[in-house]
Amino acid sequence: MSAGLDSRWAISWLRAAAEVVADHRIDLSELDRAIGDGDHGENLDRGFSAIVEKLAVETPQTPGAVFKLAAMALMSKVGGAAGPLYGTAFLRAATASGDAAELDPALLAAALTAARDGVVARGKAAAGDKTMVDAWSPAAAAAAAAVAAGDGVVEVLEAAAAAAEAGAVATDPLTARKGRASYLGERSAGHRDPGAASSALILRAAADAANQPAAGRPGGDAA
Ligand code: ADP
Ligand code: MG
């Protein structure tokens, strides 16, 4: 049985992420309206739509190449704070994935950690600053813990998605210390960080895509 996730999974993930971002475009911008400038949903929808357009004309053959395509589209189309942050996340994930045809659990967790490290390097936010780091950091940690426990790729992504969701919810009471929301100081408390919310949606899409038999799931070829 294959133990890894291939480029078909990565493509399914990004297509599913584009759908979920489009579905939550209004909600994400509402979150951003409360503590930012109200454009987060629009920003991300533009970027993920650009990814889907690119995937209609090219078919990258490795997960790393898929992530690189995503990084380029996000950096050129999203703008604002989130574009370079998500772009860096996907670019670092691409580098960590290298030329591997499949991501095994350890490489998958390494890619998630690299993505988190990229967000931190780019935005200089720490855990608890009420940013997308509060979703990515617990996600990367949960993925590493799942690998250490001997879990497979689906469990690694499930753990990452669940941790990102909990991390996003946990931003509600925090006071923002980075990004536009930090201009509000304590008035930012009582609202969910939009970037943490979108990160949780995107990581959930990764887990969902890994659960689809036709999408490069381990064991999809083992019947
Ligand atoms: P902008 O703030 O430029 O309008 P978006 O609205 O698209 O950009 O994205 C806002 C999100 O970006 C925030 O909710 C937060 O999660 C994230 N963010 C902003 N600044 C930082 C930072 N320095 N580090 C990490 N994440 C950040
Ligand atoms: Mg904004």
Description of the molecule:
The chain is an all-alpha fold and 223 residues long. It has a single domain (5-210), classed as Serine Threonine Protein Phosphatase 5, Tetratricopeptide repeat (Alpha Horseshoe). It has helices spanning 7-23, 25-35, 40-57, 63-77, 82-97, 105-123, 133-148, 153-169, 194-210. The longest helix is centred in the middle third of the chain and has 19 residues, at 105-123. Bound molecules: adenosine-5'-diphosphate (ADP) and magnesium ion. Residues 32, 36-37, 39-40, 80, 180 line the site of magnesium ion.
Chart the SSEs and their pairings.
Elements: H1 7-23, H2 25-35, H3 40-57, H4 63-77, H5 82-97, H6 105-123, H7 133-148, H8 153-169, H9 194-210
Residues 32, 36-37, 39-40, 43, 80-82, 85, 119, 123-125, 131-133, 178-180, 193-196 line the site of adenosine-5'-diphosphate.
Number of helices: 9
- Looking at the structure, the CATH topology is Serine Threonine Protein Phosphatase 5, Tetratricopeptide repeat
CATH top level is Mainly Alpha
Q: What does the overall shape look like?
A: globular
Oligomer: single chain
Given helix and strand content, the structural type is: mainly alpha
Q: Which percent band covers the strand fraction?
A: under 5%
From the 3D coordinates, which CATH architecture would you assign? Alpha Horseshoe
Number of strands: 0
Low confidence ranges: 219-223
